[in-house]
Amino acid sequence: MLRRIDASVINDENEKLKSHLDADYAALADKLARDNIDIETITAKAGEFQVAVPSWGTGTGGTRFARFPGTGEPRNIWEKLEDCAVINEMSGCTDSVSPHFPWDVVSDFSELKEKADAYGLKWVSVNSNTFQDQKGQEYSYKYGSLSNTKKESRDLAIQHNLDVIEYGKQLGAKSLTVWVGDGSNHPGQSHFQRAFERYLASMEEVYKGLPDDWEMHIEHKMFEPAFYSTIIQDWGSNLLAAMHLGPKCKSLVDLGHHAPNTNIEMIVSRLIQFKKLGGFHFNDSKYGDDDLDSGSLHPYQQFLIFNELVDAEYRGQEGFGPAYMLDQSHNVTDPAESLINSAIEVQRSYVKALLVNREALYGYQEDNDALMASLELKNVFNLDISPILAMARYRKGAPINPLGVYRAAGYREGMAKQRPQDPNATGSGIV
Amino acid sequence: MLRRIDASVINDENEKLKSHLDADYAALADKLARDNIDIETITAKAGEFQVAVPSWGTGTGGTRFARFPGTGEPRNIWEKLEDCAVINEMSGCTDSVSPHFPWDVVSDFSELKEKADAYGLKWVSVNSNTFQDQKGQEYSYKYGSLSNTKKESRDLAIQHNLDVIEYGKQLGAKSLTVWVGDGSNHPGQSHFQRAFERYLASMEEVYKGLPDDWEMHIEHKMFEPAFYSTIIQDWGSNLLAAMHLGPKCKSLVDLGHHAPNTNIEMIVSRLIQFKKLGGFHFNDSKYGDDDLDSGSLHPYQQFLIFNELVDAEYRGQEGFGPAYMLDQSHNVTDPAESLINSAIEVQRSYVKALLVNREALYGYQEDNDALMASLELKNVFNLDISPILAMARYRKGAPINPLGVYRAAGYREGMAKQRPQDPNATGSGIV
Amino acid sequence: MLRRIDASVINDENEKLKSHLDADYAALADKLARDNIDIETITAKAGEFQVAVPSWGTGTGGTRFARFPGTGEPRNIWEKLEDCAVINEMSGCTDSVSPHFPWDVVSDFSELKEKADAYGLKWVSVNSNTFQDQKGQEYSYKYGSLSNTKKESRDLAIQHNLDVIEYGKQLGAKSLTVWVGDGSNHPGQSHFQRAFERYLASMEEVYKGLPDDWEMHIEHKMFEPAFYSTIIQDWGSNLLAAMHLGPKCKSLVDLGHHAPNTNIEMIVSRLIQFKKLGGFHFNDSKYGDDDLDSGSLHPYQQFLIFNELVDAEYRGQEGFGPAYMLDQSHNVTDPAESLINSAIEVQRSYVKALLVNREALYGYQEDNDALMASLELKNVFNLDISPILAMARYRKGAPINPLGVYRAAGYREGMAKQRPQDPNATGSGIV
Amino acid sequence: MLRRIDASVINDENEKLKSHLDADYAALADKLARDNIDIETITAKAGEFQVAVPSWGTGTGGTRFARFPGTGEPRNIWEKLEDCAVINEMSGCTDSVSPHFPWDVVSDFSELKEKADAYGLKWVSVNSNTFQDQKGQEYSYKYGSLSNTKKESRDLAIQHNLDVIEYGKQLGAKSLTVWVGDGSNHPGQSHFQRAFERYLASMEEVYKGLPDDWEMHIEHKMFEPAFYSTIIQDWGSNLLAAMHLGPKCKSLVDLGHHAPNTNIEMIVSRLIQFKKLGGFHFNDSKYGDDDLDSGSLHPYQQFLIFNELVDAEYRGQEGFGPAYMLDQSHNVTDPAESLINSAIEVQRSYVKALLVNREALYGYQEDNDALMASLELKNVFNLDISPILAMARYRKGAPINPLGVYRAAGYREGMAKQRPQDPNATGSGIV
């Protein structure tokens, strides 16, 4: 398999850390064994866990005020793919990439697929972009895309989504994620019902183009870029659309797209119950759609979400099988470092959720023993399961200390030389 | 018709104000005529508008910290009914009362109905109470009612709702409003899906007991009394439950039960579109379920909600016909004064919404003329339509200046003498 | 005086509307006279009211996702000034412009001042920009400006602010507004106390450069572009900094920069009381720093803020005299139209606040007559004072119907021809 | 020392768990030693950590809707003290009690102090109550206490606070905590500035009565029981009041009293920097002042707050020494169980914060290495330091497994027999 960072760098570093890992792993194994948990079963499951990386996440993000570029940023999908390969080599749990079109359009998708194959990477959910106008675009999305009052703009957006499905087919993807920026900034600007009717009619056209073995995932977002209303503002509208469109359409939950104080894990449970949970965009946020690193602010919330997911798996909930993806904006860090670390933090939540004694929990719930029920979750959360994650990586040839190896390898410095940036680019944003 | 405040008091006050009202009304008529609006049509519609009063709203409210009683408060449903009569005499737009059980249970409902009839008051949506334990109650609602893990508590809650339907039949009501305090305070305390399944199963039993010409309205609430999760936390869960239960079940929107920043008027539109808008609990709030006086903080939001309602009416939206009710907690005012004033503020929003030139608005929306669309609403909102409201009252014998007449009549002072309060009651709340 | 839209266009339109205005004005005068309010006094005050326009507000705004340019946008400060002139001609209440540097740097400020003088426009508070890197900038603001850990970046930011003061002197401005994007995206990234100490030390240097008759206004902002912490996150930190720096430093309140549910009018009162209210950035928001049109969503909140301002004036509060400015982002409207309309909406709030009977209000407050106190404000808010605003404009030669005249004049269409836009610009934002 | 739960029960349970604790402790010691951390130093500090228990927290809480009492609840301060003793025996880190007056007034405070001494408990910050009217109270607090427009109500509130200081002197307390429910429910009801002036004048009188070696702590709260404005709504007003009153007056931070999304740890830093951090009321919340168990929802936020506290200690910040107290409302759990567990969760945050390598963190901050800085905190948070907490308890004779011992001892069941509750009490709340 093609590699971006030499295995020897990893191995050298791993050798230095292995004895400590063994000690920590053995201690944890003993501890878990007291609760009749076999650490090897958990480590095996940790090793199987994967979360996808978005191609666009490998570049430095920005805000409407400014973008401060990093060094050695990828300039196209080929270089983004290179970075995704590194992220997977380091994290050991990101074996797939989610592309965004038209940003990632290439003339020969088979070449792109081959390149990914060589790195051991798969292509997953394809994303359409109707929240920007492309150069020379005949009809604008300024006032909406799939829900625009003008048929021409709607048709353009529908066709783009159908095109994206075609790109995805060539890459071997099996799902389309649809997020639109449609909405309004003024009361009265948009007729809520008519706009939603137009949206649904357009989505019906896209749905028709969906292969039988594909899914379509709708993403809701409370605000931004529209600031008074958005067409799919919350899981309620999302669910209505997904039910209207049919069984291949499901809802996608982005952790940063909710109203303040929202109990997201409960929404996840409802979507599971009604067979409409399509997938996740993992990130963290404090104020809005901040797109911060997953679990960097609310690790317990992330764990509680995985508690719902693992519980559904445990109960054999019908129709359950969401897609996991990171979706972050990295404004002040090396995007590769953030993605490596975030993937592992998501994996950490998953592994902790596996350790919950579900039968004991059900018993506490049945007995309304609120404190013990809460401690069944909290005690697991308080465990340090890092040795399991490290061992899972070690066993597949990934680093015990991923960021240490990444930095030791000097990857970004190398890219800074190989990928000269546009000298005319400024850090000015949109104001 | 039986009256609580003598008509002569009203007439005397009205005479003093009539010439000014005539002048203001004429000026407004001229102004509206320029836009081809016939003021008489609007005034007639204003006169037909009604919003129900909740029986419990006539007493002074409180918080978990304290309740500071007012003077002359009603001590039972008979006295609450008296106050509702006064409120209707003054406002001219609150001809119905919504009772709450078991608080308002009486031994002879026909007597209660007769009394209301005498006042010209109707009984509308009946409310059940399974968020408190009643003295001697065999099974507690501490850990839930309709969704309790224990069948005994669920059965009690189901039976109570069925009883409430029976009370309602005797009073001539046609709908049951169900709000429960069920939820959890700790992650893990409640299994979200199982709790919701139990809730739905219980509600199915209640639904079976619903007469064919009744509706059942489900009320969602983001938090309080449960502080981590509530069983029907938002319109998403509300809608799922209403769809599950059947066509007689609809969602009720309480303006104070949403997450911060939520676009409530959009939720109203969605519920209208999907034929699930059952009714409203009007109030206002700044921080949570504050139950402040309707429109006292966000009058434009209240107008925007009525803009959706009047638009649905204008378009002849199928299945549209929500019930309107005030639901406020009056901690620092005379409840009757707040209810009189709030009813008129709700009526004000309705009347303004009638003045919107909908065809012009549709044109701006179609053309994406955001500014003119927003001004079509804002310009109407900026109008002073008080003369229409006052004239509508005057024509039905209600006061031009309701609060002036109410105070001049010395109603509360009279009640303070007639209704001695429990001398042992303290202002202590629950801490 | 130099004009952008011919006076004859205004006069022609005004003639058509004058008789209706006279009728409405007379009716309102009668109504107010009943409460012993002389409409002429109010109209005179309305005519004196001014709110500044930000130079950058004349261009179409955008988000991190995209910017959809409008037609005929100004391409430099000269053209922005032209648009500001039009806005003032139409609104009759925006006689000053607030520039932003380095965006608005010109080689000869005296020429710029002359041009503004010719239009009858003044230059007010100058704004510095250390939230973006300029092309060729030696030290970056990526990790902060005035609070950067690196002295070189701090020095650059200090010098830039000193430069901006110099530009302002040449334009006749008397205040500097400082907003910085400094903050952090990760817990731990920034040492809160040390960063604030560096910020204060840098601001001391800027303060030293402030002429004696100038003020410095600090702007707080809860989030964006930093998403975990910002250096001046709220009025608490703002006040601490303003008190630390000295009497010439005051706090500026932007309506969109607060936590959800915040009672902004109360913050205004506190700043007035402690002599630290420097000024306002007016706009409206529903979710965050949305920068929507002033009063477009929460007109009553805007009125309540002016209620505090007029009350301070009425009481002769020492040290009171805040600067008023619009600060909006116009993503879907013609910026000139939004600014014209918003200026008038701000003026509307001011005029309504003048109508409050303050002595009556104080009496209700003293007596804890909560309902009558609230109605003293609400009844005034419910008045339609549009005739006062229109008459004030008419008397100074501005349009009775500003947007009607603006459109009739075909200003934007003319600019679309005169100001060809960069054909290579795309609508792509920063992602 | 007088005990509530026999030491033998603890010892028996500890013996069963000791060998596992030893193994876990040794493994953790090894792990920490790699980073040059001596576990014994940390364990000693953990053993010294104390957080106070509020007397009122030992009873079951409620909401305005209902209170569902638990069994065996304490009926007076003597029984509350008994429960506080148990909580301290189990947690090993709650050696002090904070009383609330007039609830906890007794005829002989020396007897109360002796009883506490016997249990090894100290009395800390005394709390006044002017948010409720007491039976027979001559002037009401319905419209405010220290800020009431009526001098009689203000004087009553001032005198009560002075009385509370006297009670505190007899108990050996050294601080007074002042929280008032003053505020308003309607715009206009209260004149913000005048109300604040009255509040400050009243507080000056209380301050005069404060002994020289005491502190006064002001508590802010965004809302409830007042729902439009509160007199000390946030840390800004809190700080202004504390600075106005003098050096003995400081601000108290309750974790549940902030606007949504507020960065509380940053407020803590600011208060430390300006020498005004008086203390904490620990609890957790999702929606408002939910008073949930400390760290039960946002354990990372609690850790980040302690990161600020330990950092201030590390830097030897002048004037630093806040008081720590739990302040929770236990509606669905045994209050003793919640308080035991919460005290340990607070201790957990403190101990984790001790493990941060501050010099390394400062280095990352200086270098703007955002990711490594964030990981310096997150990696420590991800550690399981339960063995340190358990060993610290074990060494002082407290249980390795506190809740296990508490339940095994059958304490609550015993109290249910000894403390018969009022049979006439109902679960009805205030509506």
UniProtKB/TrEMBL annotation, chains A, B, C, D:
Pfam families: AP_endonuc_2. GO terms for molecular function: isomerase activity; metal ion binding. InterPro entries: L-rhamnose_isomerase, L_rhamnose_iso, Xyl_isomerase-like_sf, Xyl_isomerase-like_TIM-brl. The keyword Metal-binding applies. Keywords: Isomerase, Manganese, Metal-binding. This is L-rhamnose catabolism isomerase. Residues 108-292 form the Xylose isomerase-like TIM barrel domain. It comes from the Bacteria.
